Fold each of these.
Amino acid sequence: MKANIVLLGPPGSGKGTQGEMLSEELGYAKLSTGDMLREAVRNKTPLGLEAKAYMDGGGLVPNDLIIGLMKEKIASLAPGTGAIFDGFPRTVEQADSLGEQIDVDLALNLDVADGEIVKRLTFRRSCSKCNAVYHLEYNPPKRDGLCDKCGSALYQRDDDMEETVRNRLKVYREKTLPLIEYYESKGRLVTIEGVGDIAGIFAKVKKAVE
Ligand code: AMP
């Protein structure tokens, strides 16, 4: 029976990258609300149209929309498969809702300082198709502007511009930081320093999971 894992940490702390590696190497299902929302925006669905303005400003999409979106996805998970939640929950209300549906076995908190976050996100490029992420300096794609995994074009997310990044950090502190205490009080929290090379961080993440 695999664990249900919540990834915590500020935007740009490596939740997407580490979650992807865990899911590929250990066979977990990965649910990323950010990826789902960006897909909804690309497809101009009613959810995408409503969410876009919040996302562009670096704010949070309202709880009822996110909880509604995730309820179905969580309900469709095969029992015991193990799931990784990337970018959800982001508020105490979302965490309460998740806890009503499944047991969270581990909350992994990737700790990265603000200055490092701004450097990371402004140099981040994302794949328009498969959501893989790169850093122009630390983890550049092999071919300029193209994804190593699927060959599609890379782009800079609108919300990775510096001003929006600063707002996302502010929102993170106000709305999401209380979740560290929330999971700590339940005895589920493990904090990992999210700086250094990706493989080194992954080794620590894997140890916490296994
Ligand atoms: P991410 O890719 O996780 O950084 O998410 C990108 C943006 O999507 C965030 O800045 C929010 O606007 C929105 N978003 C993603 N997940 C959530 C969530 N759980 N609750 C509210 N908004 C979210």
Amino acid sequence: MTQERVAYVNGKIVPESQATVSISDRGFLLGDAVFDTTRTFGHQIFKLQEHLERLYDSLKWMRIDPQMTLDEMSDLTMDVLERNLPTVDVDDDIWVTQRVTRGLRLAGADIQGAADRPTVIIECFPIPFQERAHYYRDGMPIVTPSVRRTPPEAMSPRAKTHNYINLIQADMEARAQNPHAYALLLDMNGNLCEGNGSNIFLVKDGRIRTPRSQYVLGGISRETTIELAHELDIEISEDDIDVFDAYTADEIFVTSTSLCICPVSTFNGAQVGDGSTGPVTDRLQKAYSGLVSIDIIGQYTRWLE
Ligand code: PMP
């Protein structure tokens, strides 16, 4: 489709090609910004309220005032999405993101030098179903890089900020080993933590474990998966999980807004289970599909046919 997407930038809806931020914006200069991303399923937005609550928690932690209420942000998000839906194919879906920076730099990096108006952006971006389709046939290889996830003592991983540097470094290390691999960072204690945009779960003897919430971004799909496990009567807990646990797991899967629940095939090159989607992962994927009224696997694998 040829119609150009639009974005919201500080009170205006503009074509994406004209949606720009100033070179003096602190979000650009210093990473002094937060964001959040949800997606549509069958063109319906998913858990917008939960995503906006997480955005407003990130803003509060950063002490950035978006100068609009959560309800106003919600209305603007729906407006931007509706304007962009005509660009989305009937079988496709789209990411929907809000970004809020502290605004323009007035004097160096000094916090006193921030302008008193934040920069607010709302934008949409196509989900790369085709590029990622093979992960649902072959499973996802994950690799633990040398770089560790930011500890809460340094910068809370629970806030979704514009600083993804260690996650990006981690992905570069992982991709150097296997071009399809996703990085799974360890925390400072050597426990499994999270990836660049995803949370991790291990299954052993029918029980699911996921890293503790103090050390990771509280993924909305992580939360959704925990709820589905409860509904399915599958035991699930937050725990310290180490590399030994990963090597000996029956199943591993990752969750994210776009991936939903994606099976992991190898951990540092070692096969997980029998290398295919395990029974617990399969049950959760089916429950996820039921919840969102979309075949979440089929939406990816249709590209492989
Ligand atoms: N961890 C990090 C660092 C992330 O950026 C994301 C993506 N938002 C996630 C986990 C998964 O969160 P969600 O399920 O809300 O997409």
